[in-house]
């Protein structure tokens, strides 16, 4: 896999470098530039799939969240206008939501999850892109996850079968949408095929 080196500058507070697979170069653009190229979307979000020993990191949205409280998701969020690129947003969001530091963005998972917030003329069309990433903390025996309790209340490392079953150790795995669950399963499929 060829990669490009990113300085990690911009809004990623760790300012640590990360590499990006060459086939993701088209995402080395700003939020604004991406939306100009894809006018069907008014907003863009990103997600990061972090695997360790065959398990995937999921975070549970806070019970106080206005939208989709208590559901499980991969870490991620909105691309901000001050993110240097869409890919820098992946690193920033993962660090903000978990304290983990991206070292590489390896490939895109799926083709994006489409959703709409609001209704009628005031509605907003979103696209959420997801990526498998490697993190600096991946080699540690135990990865310390730091959650912001305003956004997330819990995390789990899950296996593919847990997601298919919708439960792990007595905890129900409810996702925002069926598309979000499908994206997680696609991440497991791609990981399995790469092994």
UniProtKB/TrEMBL annotation:
SUPFAM superfamilies: Nudix. InterPro entries: NUDIX_hydrolase-like_dom_sf, NUDIX_hydrolase_dom. It comes from the Eukaryota. This is Putative nudix domain protein. Residues 41-190 form the Nudix hydrolase domain.
